[in-house]
C-alpha cells in the first residue's frame, strides 16, 4: 500500500534515547523511568522468553525485594516493545510468552553500556542511598549559593530558610 513504506524499518523513528546521561531523575520512589525500564524488560526477555508475571518476579528478585514493578508498569511496556518490533508475543495457555526479535537484539546491542549500568543499579540497593545523598548535596549547595548571593537581603535569607524548613517538614510527614 502506498504511504505505508518505511525505508528505515520499524525502528526508523525510535531513536530518542539519550544514553547514560539521560534517565531517572526526580521521579519519586520509582527506580526507573519508563524509558530505562524498557531496556531492562527487553534484556530480561533476551535472556529467555518470558511472561509479564515472570518479568515482575524477576525484577523483584534481582533487586533483593527492593523493587517490584506493578503490572500497570510492565504490561503497557510489553505492548510498546511489541509495537516497536523488539519482541514477539505468542499465546501460551492464557498468558503471552514474549520473545526478543533481531531488531530487539540490535537495539540492546546499540545500548549495551546503558543497559548494563541500569542492571547494575538494580542489583545495588546502595544506589538508592547514593542517589539520595547526591540530591541532598545539590540542595545544600543551592542553599549555600543563594545565601552567599543574597548576603545583605534578609528577606531572601528568610525565603531560603522557609523552603528548607518546608522540605524537612514534608519529608517527616511521609508515611
TrEMBL record:
Taxonomic source organism: Duganella callida
Protein name: PadR family transcriptional regulator
Annotated ranges, domain Transcription regulator PadR N-terminal: 41-110
Residue ranges, annotated region (Disordered): 1-30
PANTHER family, alphabetized: TRANSCRIPTIONAL REGULATOR YQJI
Biased segments, Basic residues type: 1-28
Amino acid at each position: 500500500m502506498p504511504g505505508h513504506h518505511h525505508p528505515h524499518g520499524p525502528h526508523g523513528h525510535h531513536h530518542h534515547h539519550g544514553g547514560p546521561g539521560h534517565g531517572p531523575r526526580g521521579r519519586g520512589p520509582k527506580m526507573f523511568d519508563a524509558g530505562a525500564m524498557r531496556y531492562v524488560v527487553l534484556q530480561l526477555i533476551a535472556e529467555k522468553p518470558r511472561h509479564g508475571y515472570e518479568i515482575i518476579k524477576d525484577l523483584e528478585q534481582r533487586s533483593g525485594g527492593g523493587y517490584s514493578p506493578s503490572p500497570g508498569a510492565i504490561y503497557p511496556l510489553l505492548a510498546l516493545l511489541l509495537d516497536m518490533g523488539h519482541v514477539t508475543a505468542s499465546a501460551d495457555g492464557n498468558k503471552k510468552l514474549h520473545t526478543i526479535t533481531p531488531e530487539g537484539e540490535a537495539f540492546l546491542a546499540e545500548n549495551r553500556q546503558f543497559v548494563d549500568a541500569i542492571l547494575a543499579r538494580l542489583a545495588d540497593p546502595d544506589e538508592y542511598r547514593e542517589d539520595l545523598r547526591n540530591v541532598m548535596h545539590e540542595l545544600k549547595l543551592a542553599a549555600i549559593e543563594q545565601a552567599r548571593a543574597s548576603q545583605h537581603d534578609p528577606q531572601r535569607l528568610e525565603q531560603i530558610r522557609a523552603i528548607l524548613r518546608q522540605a524537612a517538614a514534608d519529608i517527616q510527614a511521609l508515611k
